[in-house]
Amino acid sequence: MALAKERKNVAQAARELEISGSLLRTWIAAAETAEARGKGLAGALEEKQELERLRKRLAEAEEELEIIKKATAYFAQERLKRNTHGSKK
């Protein structure tokens, strides 16, 4: 971030660091956000990793819920079939 500020050119700083300009801009934005929150870059990266972990866990939980819904519907249908067939006898 300091290099980019010194150069006043993110693209030039990225070339010197041998990384993409978009990656450097992402790092700069994360650092600025972290500074505003008083966490620093390391805190921002930890927060990002935690957010990614939580999003992944949420997706897993949503998938598990869909499986439970489908299983519940299946077993309810089976029970209804048994009750319907049993009442005809």
Helix run count: 4
Biggest beta sheet attributes: none
Q: How many structural units, i.e. domains?
A: 1
Beta percentage is: under 5%
Low-confidence stretches: none
Q: N- to C-terminal separation?
A: 80 Å
Fraction of residues in helix? over 70%
Average pLDDT, all residues: 82
Element-by-element helix/strand order? HHHH
Number of strands: 0
What structural class should be given to the helix and strand makeup? mainly alpha
Integer-rounded radius of gyration = 27 Å
The geometry reads as rod-shaped
Please characterize this protein's 3D structure.
The chain has one domain (2-88). The chain contains four helices and no strands. The chain is mainly alpha-helical. It has helices at residues 2-7, 10-17, 21-37, 40-88.
Task: Provide the descriptors you would attach to this structure in a database record.
4 helices, mainly alpha, single chain, 89 residues
Write the layout of secondary structure elements.
Blueprint: H1 2-7, H2 10-17, H3 21-37, H4 40-88
Helix pairs in contact: 2-3, 3-4
What's the gist of this structure?
This protein is an all-alpha fold and 89 residues long. It has helices at 2-7, 10-17, 21-37, 40-88.
